[in-house]
Design brief:
Number of strands: 9
Strand order of the largest sheet: 1-2-3-5-4-6-7-8-9
Number of helices: 18
Largest sheet: 9 strands, mixed
Shape: globular
Structural class: alpha/beta
């Protein structure tokens, strides 16, 4: 399972942009969909280079502004593969009333995701088996099994979603977002994207710099890095997050560890043990190393879930993986009835469409080398994108966003972000010609609406007044 989520000749981009320019703004018909929200569907070209041919559907939702309206605030929660519809449903808890009074909050499921025309690859039982399989091969036989399963997944995606599969890149999603902007009658885009959503936003700004009003990119992806480097950096960031958890946990009365060293050795031993002997669970499903790893990773995304991690590791030491399994299921989009959202499959499809992938041999070498700097998580995260090795190559090499000509943009980086390392936000700020970096000194994945009044105030002021914080601002 890919946990997270890119270069083109300028002339080629220019030609493609010209080819897409004549598409007229589509019309939207809104309907009430409960709790003050309105929903609609946007018809967009399957292939933006051939807009007169087949079309697909994008699911859209909005929460109308309640006061002196500025315009629409487009939001994306990341992934790739995470539902923007579900994220927008939580808008009353994410955005203050002062912001909701000024903006319609607009979310959408990107092409291939959720309620939009979806990518679908495997039946639920087969997807469950793929997620649970040994994803850190230690022998030639284990590697061969993982390669066969990854190849079968890629073939299943081609078989069930072959028409859509070549057209789920971030570049195409950014063009969909521009059609939605036009359909809403917005002259310029106001946008807040988190995690992968920063890459979507930066790509939009690169393609349509004159159509940007304001853009917040929180927990940035570095678009200049190779797939191996992205995987390694993320694994190291999760190691850093676990180290911080291990250091602070013993201060709590509910912590199962007496010191940091005990927390580290317990995790290492647990992962090694579950590689051969799965934990049991109340769900009567075994919890092997892959699901144990996912359960730990899921609990590191947010500092508020560290107590759950403590309880999970306490259970695991007695052979019970119930809480780890619950956390893993939440991370991969498994429902209580055993069905899955398509976030794992669509996220993988978008990742494969965006980034050239190393061969299995190069990936194997990178996984082995990753144990030096990321001994707990390196091999698992490195191997997680193996199916991309059997994917069709990216249809159009994606751009490295530079976005010259945009108004001031705001990038936010968290110093101990476990999923999008702080260095990625620094790098994206350097590449975007008009970006300012706002730093959050803390833990957790992304910063806005995650407990920092300082960050929230800076973002809310920027979105409403277009005033960026002074360079070097730290919260």
């Amino acid at each position: 399972m890919a946990l997270v989520w890119c270069r083109v000749v300028l002339a080629a981009l220019t030609l493609l942009s010209a080819a897409c320019a004549p598409i007229p703004p589509p019309s939207l018909t809104w309907s009430d969909c409960g709790d003050g929200f309105q929903c609609t569907r946007l018809q967009v070209p399957l292939d933006h280079a051939n807009p007169a041919a087949d079309r697909i559907s994008i699911s859209v939702i909005r929460l109308p502004a309640t006061g002196d309206r500025i315009g629409s605030l487009f939001i994306n929660p990341g992934g790739p593969g995470t539902s923007g519809i579900d994220y927008t449903r939580a808008a009353p808890a994410i955005f203050p009333q002062s912001l909701r009074s000024r903006f319609d909050i607009v979310g959408f499921d990107p092409r291939g995701v959720g309620q939009s025309t979806p990518i679908k690859c495997l039946p639920d039982a087969e997807l469950a088996a793929f997620i649970a399989m040994d994803s850190t091969p230690d022998t030639p036989a284990e590697r061969a099994k993982l390669e066969r399963a990854s190849k079968d997944l890629a073939r299943a995606c081609q078989r069930r979603s072959g028409t859509l599969l070549p057209h789920v890149s971030t570049t195409e999603a950014a063009r969909d977002m521009d059609l939605l902007r036009a359909a809403l009658g917005e002259e310029k885009l106001t946008y807040l994207g988190k995690s992968y959503g920063t890459y979507l936003g930066a790509t939009y700004a690169h393609l349509f710099p004159a159509r940007v009003r304001a853009m917040v990119l929180d927990g940035a992806i570095d678009p200049t890095l190779s797939r191996e480097r992205l995987n390694l950096d993320q694994a190291i960031a999760f190691e850093t997050a676990y180290a911080e958890y291990a250091k602070t946990c013993p201060r709590s009365t509910t912590c199962p560890f007496t010191n940091e060293e005990s927390a580290q050795s317990t995790l290492h031993t647990l992962l090694k043990k579950t590689d051969t002997t799965p934990l049991t669970s109340e769900q009567t499903r075994p919890v092997p190393e892959s699901l144990t790893t996912l359960g730990v990773l899921a609990s590191l995304y947010d500092r508020t879930t560290w107590p759950i991690l403590s309880e999970s590791l306490t259970q695991a030491q007695s052979g019970d993986g119930t809480l780890l399994l619950t956390s893993a299921d939440n991370l991969v989009g498994r429902n209580e009835d055993g069905t899955y959202t398509n976030q794992t499959e669509s996220g993988l499809a978008i990742t494969c469409a965006d980034t050239p992938h190393p061969t299995p041999d190069k990936l194997s070498q990178a996984a082995s080398e990753s144990t030096t700097s990321a001994p707990n998580f390196g091999p698992y995260i490195m191997w997680s994108t193996l199916p991309c090795a059997y994917w069709p190559p990216p249809k159009t090499p994606p751009p490295t966003p530079k976005a010259p000509g945009t108004p001031p943009l705001l990038v936010i980086g968290t110093t101990r972000d476990p999923a999008t390392p702080y260095s990625w936000s620094q790098s994206l700020t350097d590449h975007l010609k008009s970006a300012t970096l706002l730093t959050y000194e803390g833990d957790g994945h992304t910063a806005y609406s995650n407990g920092s009044t300082c960050i929230d105030n800076q973002v809310n002021r920027y979105l409403t007044t277009l005033t960026t914080p002074p360079p070097g601002t730290r919260c």
